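Predict structure. Chain length: 730.
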Amino acid sequence: MTSSIRFCLVLHNHQPVGNFDGVIRQAFEDSYLPFLEIFESYSDLALSLHISGPLMEWLAQHQPGYLDRLRRLVASGRVEILGGPFYEPILTMIPPRDRIGQITRYRTYLEQNLGATVQGIWVPERVWEQELTRDLADAGVRYTILDDFHFKNAGLVEEQLIGYYLTEDDGRLLAVFPGSERLRYLIPFAAPEETVRFLRSIADRHPQAVVVFGDDGEKFGTWPQTKKHVYQDGWLRRFFDMLVAERHWLKTTTLFEAYQQLPAAGKIYLPDASYREMTEWALPVERQVEYEDLVQELQQDPRWPRLRHFLRGGYWRNFKVKYPEANEMYSRMMYVSRRLESARQSGIAAYLFEAAQQALYRSQCNCGYWHGAFGGIYLPHLRNAVYRELITADNYLDQATGRAAPFVEAAAEDYDFDQRTEVRLANDKLIVWLAPSRGGQMYELDVRSVRHNLLATLARRPEAYHRKVLAGASHAASSVASIHDRVVFKQEGLDKRVQYDRLPRKSLQDHFLARETSAQAFQQGCGELGDFLEGAYEARIRRDPDRIQVLMSRQGLVEGRTVRLTKAVTLHAGSNVLRVGYLLEQLPLGVQWRFAIEWNFAGLPAGADDRYFRDARGERLGHLGTWLDLNNVQELSLTDEWLGLSVHLHSSRPANFWTFPIETVSQSEAGFELVHQSVVVTPYWDLQPDAEGRWSVVLELALDSSLADQRLGAERSWLETASPELVALS
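Prediction complete.
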């Protein structure tokens, strides 16, 4: 009797919340549509398919015909639809109530829109912790797929990974299929014959085995060079032809069929893990470099095949340590989740709860919270999308509590889980987050009308791949290759643009500088004389009926001399103006210091004609990536016409201004690239204290969203004319 195996082809198609429409459309044309068109003609083949919720919503809006074709394949039994959390969060990053809520909501959506019976799920990025077993089982999940790397970390060897295993937590059971890393690197990069030979070798040793390939559908056309390789050069048709030709021993099947027809191969408890590459990216940079060097060294050792299974990388949650900006988004998301749960328990209108919950779920989309071979957290539009949804949820929750009239409020607690107190200052126009213990900095500034966080910044920091950038050579594969093996520079001279920041790029950062400090030196972090940037400020909150002030003060050192700095952040009910007053005391007479207040503004791109600086007369001074060195001015504005927002910074006394862009050299699937992260605006003064050693200034930051408000008003006016029913839904 001929040995036979079951081969499960599992594809994961995903586009993150906030991705550009053109990017999604290109992926559809290059990957999703051509793959489906070819697959339809092979009636003997079956596959399991996961489409993430954000992509499914895009398809429903822009390509309903594609979903009609998919529906027919589901009805015929050739395509199994896998569920998952609706908006593709890392499951270990969100509370259990949100895990279960996202999974059950998406199951309902898929059943209603594709007629699918959903029993298995795709775990985003295969990030696993054993406690997920309980929540997945409680959400009605019967099986899932992880990488064989998870199983090898638990002590299993290759020969044992020929079926699915049961795992358990708190008495709940879940079946878990191991996906083959070897197949991830063969498909579609190697010739189809190599995959068939690999499967044949398993069939000869293990009749009735189940072998699973599970990976991104974008590698079939969207990843660099794969469109030509997979479709124009005919790789996919040759692959499918070979699967059909070998069907007497090689049966393609869905995960559901394998789960239903075969018993479990055993029981296993899986340690915290993801796919192998992800665990490497999660390491601190120094350890990541050491890890890479160690692997390269050990690969020459004849014992490497035995040693490699005992070599592990890092832990996904530590991306929140590696990138403090990821922790800021995470902490903000957790705040909204807690607030929503409190509203649910207190009673909230169903339509407002649903709207706020959907915005929360969308904010949990994982792509902007970490970084590896893809742009991830380095992509401003993904970070902006996270904050847009969080601000949207906050707006709905305020509406639910009846806050129609202007209000102002403040609260202090440990919002970001560091055992130190932060302050949230909010009114009906703005939300301000302050960290007194971290230099009294402002680390988030939300403009509620345009749902934009002006401080969704990212600091420049070392990355392991900067070694390749600094080497300055491009080594793109001459033939199609995995994104993990490509070295491509999308721009010239990137090795000269690598630079690192000592501190986060936030606002209200207080610098005491040597008077001769230049803009270039300041941009490089030179000239600092004081200890205020990272020092802890004492903070207290003053409340009036229509305004709240957060008063922060610190006695620190500048060139060994004691100086007292007090700054007061004031917000009025109904106002879009943030007022910041500074008082310096105990300044020595004849001091030769320069005092600078650093602001960073994010989400206002550079190099575009409709995003520009303006002076007090309204004259344009250049796009938002322009280096400016202005003298003796009191006002500077930044305008983003596309966003519909103008930022006006006014000083009570004449100031000098430096502006310059913050750009990172980062990695994406297409190669290394320069990415604009924020624009620094820094007013500074050469200090001249009064006879008592005092000096003061008041800054006003006005956030004008009238352009966006007019645009929204025009849209609503058009809707009212076109269809009153639509207005109620908008």
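Summary: The chain has two domains: 5-274, 408-460+467-730.
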